[in-house]
Amino acid sequence: MSPRLAKTMELRLPAEPIRPGEKCESISPVRRPSGHAADALSGLPEPRHAIAIGSVLAAMVLVVLNTAVANVALPTIAESLQVTPAMSIWIVTAYQAALLMALLPCAALGESLGYRRVFRWGVALFTGATLFCALAPSLSWLIAARFLQGLGGAAVMALGIALLRLEVPHRQLGAAIGWNALAVGLSSAAGPAIGAAILSMTSWPWLFAAHLPLGVLVLLSTSALADVEGTARRTDLLSVVLNAGAFASLVIAAGLLADRPLLAGALLAISAIQLMLLVRREMPKEAPLIPLDLLRSNSFCVSVIASTCCFAGQTAGMVALPFYLQNGLGQEPLMAGLYMIPWPLTVAIVAPLAGRLADRWSTAWLCSAGGLCLAVGLGAASLWPLKGIPFLLVPFTMLCGLGFGLFNIANNRKMFLSAPIKRSGAAGGMQGTARLLGQTAGAIIMTLLFNLFPTDSAPQIGLGVGAVLTLLAALTSTLQGRRTESTHSEVS
């Protein structure tokens, strides 16, 4: 056989046997990337790979840490810029709207132009927008800068794990997702403390300026990332507009739900109409902006549904806990913040172990166990008679952190391995969209509960609702595990 014919017939085989519930990528002739990208796919332990992985994780830290410190500084920013607290919320809303609007388009651009190029553009835009935040003389300037930050952060969040998938072998993807969760968890836990420390020493613009060196460092390190050619597929601008309009309307409606419910309802209807038009337009395409091709896979679709439910329950719990601590248990804001730390800190501690377990055990059952732990923790926090002793909440919040770490890492691994490697960008965009949709739903649920029930009882009800939603995520994963095991037995 000639070398040319042998190269043409080269097959991509899985790096390890596929376990029940995981989808094997199609065995078909492929063009293997050359140079560093080829080495990355083989998972060789080169120093350049370590720098590349560090670049992705540092970018995640940059985005998450910046968001955490910005949220904790809202009262200070509102006072400094002489605006109402309600107006300052738009600093967060603009960022979340930009994220949701741009996640799927950034994923599509990454597949078209190359993951590294779009990821680098995202880091550059985020860093430049951070400088604009630090220099903002007014609220409108700051809101615009935060919107730009959201656009840049969307590229980082959509393509981060797709790039990690190129840097590690198949059998270590769970561990890589665990590293990512460790970085996110530590950033989330440290963000409020870092923000408070900066505000105690200087003014709020330094919250953003302090991140500029890290942004520049990440930008320089992106040259080590695997450079795989894109598909050069054209992006449908009308689809991008419909996608942006649908998610922008959704986020704005969530913000207006408490004060202007009729307008919020109209915006939700507009969002639904635009989403239906988008689905109809993208349905016939081979690689649609909304990854309908991936959602046709049972494993991928169930992972997305379970992720949305889990993040909705987790967000409801995270929003309810501070109110429960302050209004129900009489804690000062500082102490309430300290009692919140064990949750993200436990996620960070559990993340590396959860990643290793996800590479060895059934991800469907790990998701079920994690969702059940999270549900039990939220339910116990809601129903347990604390008798005025808030310290009793700590073991419950740690159980929540354990459960969320197990669920999120295993579910993300399952979601990405259910997608072909050429659609890793779309999988990352959908994973980020499911997370943000769940978080938005959790916030809306808590808004409705605060409007329907007294302030002292709404947080406990919110914790109970969060427990139900995370239990639903666990049950969904359990059913998926049973279905895939049954299918595997029949095939065997």
TrEMBL record:
Listed A to Z, the keywords are: Membrane, Transmembrane, Transmembrane helix
Subcellular location, in the record's words? Answer: Membrane
- On whether Transmembrane helix is a keyword of this UniProt record, the answer is yes
Q: How does it sit in the membrane?
A: Multi-pass membrane protein
Which ranges of the sequence are coiled-coil? none
* TM stretches of this protein: 50-74, 86-106, 118-137, 143-164, 176-198, 204-225, 237-256, 262-279, 300-324, 336-354, 366-386, 392-411, 432-453, 459-479
Q: Which residues form the Major facilitator superfamily (MFS) profile domain?
A: 52-485
Principal location: membrane
Q: Which CDD domains match?
A: MFS_MMR_MDR_like (cd17321)
Tell me what this protein is called.
MFS transporter
* Species: Metapseudomonas boanensis
Taxonomic lineage is: Bacteria, Pseudomonadati, Pseudomonadota, Gammaproteobacteria, Pseudomonadales
